[in-house]
Design brief:
The structure is a single chain. The protein is 31% helix and 9% strand. The protein has 70 residues and is an alpha+beta fold. The longest helix is centred in the middle third of the chain and has 13 residues. The chain has a two-stranded parallel sheet with strand order 1-2. It has one domain. α2 links the parallel β1 and β2.
Amino acid sequence: MKAAYDVGINFFDCAEQYSDGESEKVMGQAIKKFGWKRNDLVISTKVNSPVASSPLPGLTWLDLLGYSIW
């Protein structure tokens, strides 16, 4: 990620469904380690797909609107 950032890439695609959440953890660690400003980054994520380690089925449009049934 640092090599990409150093040449001007600031868009990173991560979601907790990638590697059971590890991509988001690694992204957070990189932001902290390299002292990146969060406002200088574009970070995408995903919703709807379940995470392997979670007993929950994933998010629905109701969850996104704050009407979660969980």
